[in-house]
Design brief:
alpha/beta, single chain, 45% helix, disordered N terminus, elongated
């Protein structure tokens, strides 16, 4: 190639560089996901989250990147994980699994949008100013588990109508959830003339001790709701069977693992709504202007296999209402 031709070619390429640079796609936004459980435990809820994202036009690997962090039940790891995601310069953070985890992310950033998922009343917990206008950089989805607690306890009473005493397992390290659980139990106890036994646990050994204490105090059944207990659902199910103590916990997965039943939020839809909010924030909406979403779909799941092992007969009317029966 002649020198003049080479210089001409080089000059033409150089002139084209700015155009080529402008033609390159911009870097994909990054979503941070921080949860107190393991990836395996939360696979189905995360599928709902991805559906919600897709409804707003975002697909992982195509036009958005997702960085996952799983505390696997060790909630004290969540503040460090939150800092790691912030250092990754994520555009928005989806956080759930425990109120301490939500607070850890909130304490770490007042600018990065945060979408939480919780079964606890976020107003009572001080996470948002109000459900309608949460304010700040935070919004999310709440199952308002405290309001569902009395209904769950009533369902257990339908299965064991002659029972006069029941136990409520609470986590003293999560005072908001603990208070909601006790208040819900008191509401049911007053209405049905039952006696409450409150047992505490925040470790695996503590859970085992709490079950033994409930049995020693002649509780007919046990109710528990806390993110830590959900991360130990197999242990909860095993202890319920070992002590012949019918148990209800706070997620469908607990009933699948072997607790007696679950009534509450349809988690697939719950996380779909969280995905929609994350997508809307990526498109420019402010989290503080997005009302906290409350569930509209609920489900009743009964583990008939567990009922048979415990020698319980589920009322036909209750079975007819069930969305899912595990046999």
């Amino acid at each position: 190639m002649r020198r003049r031709e080479f210089i001409t070619l080089l000059g033409g390429a150089a002139a084209a560089w700015p155009l080529a640079a402008r033609a390159q796609p911009s870097a994909m936004p990054v979503i941070g996901v921080l949860y107190g459980v393991s990836a395996a435990e939360w696979a189905k809820p995360m599928a709902g989250f991805h559906r919600g994202l897709a409804e707003t036009g975002f697909v992982e690997g195509r036009n958005v990147v997702i960085e996952y962090r799983w505390a696997e039940g060790q909630f004290d790891r969540m503040p460090a994980m939150a800092g790691d995601l912030i250092g990754r310069k994520v555009a928005v953070i989806l956080v759930g699994g425990s109120l301490p985890g939500v607070r850890a992310v909130m304490a770490a950033t007042q600018t990065i949008p945060i979408v939480f998922t919780t079964q606890t009343d976020p107003v009572a917990a001080g996470v948002v100013a109000s459900l309608h206008r949460p304010g700040g950089n935070v919004t999310g989805v709440t199952g308002l588990g405290g309001e569902l607690g009395p209904k769950r306890l009533e369902l257990l009473h339908q299965v064991i109508p002659k029972a006069t005493r029941f136990a409520v397992l609470v986590n003293p390290t999560n005072p908001v959830t603990m208070q909601e659980g006790i208040q819900g139990a008191q509401t049911v106890a007053h209405r049905l003339g039952l006696e409450i036994i409150v047992v505490n646990a925040s470790t695996e050994n503590g859970i085992e001790t709490a079950f033994a204490s409930a049995v020693q105090q002649r509780a007919a059944w046990l109710y528990a709701e806390d993110a830590y207990f959900e991360s130990r659902r197999e242990l909860m199910a095993a202890l319920g069977l070992r002590h012949a103590l019918p148990t209800m916990s706070g997620t469908r997965e607990s009933a699948v693992a072997g607790t007696l039943m679950y009534y509450g939020t349809n988690f697939a839809d719950f996380y779909r709504q969280a995905g929609v909010y994350v997508g809307r924030i990526l498109k420019g909406e402010k989290p503080g202007d997005l009302p906290v979403v409350q569930p509209t779909k609920f489900e009743l799941v009964i583990n008939l296999k567990t009922a048979k092992v415990l020698g319980l007969e589920i009322p036909p009317t209750l079975l007819a209402r069930a969305d899912e029966v595990i046999e």
